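Here's what a typical entry looks like (GST C-terminal domain-containing protein):
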Amino acid sequence: DAILKYLATVNNVPDHWYPKLPEKRARVDEYLAWHHANTRLHAATVFWQEVLIPLMTGNPTNPAKLEKALSDLDGTLDKLENMFLKRKAFLCGDDISLADLFA
């Protein structure tokens, strides 16, 4: 996300991508920080359990570990929908932003 924040800041991109107003920018930054420890982590864990570990080890997926990973991801997606989207089209306002690209 550092590269996209940098590019949005130094280039003349439309403000909705990474707002200049601190209050609006903070909403995008809030999601991006949350994303790394939640959406990204849990989606990556599912990918590890379901695809990479079996591919690298030649062993089948561990059903209990995969079920736990899927449950964690489901909880995260519920939070994403209820905390950030709240029945809106975009995560951090009325227009698409970097947060939506990451999600």
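The chain has one domain: 1-102.

More examples are in the samples folder.
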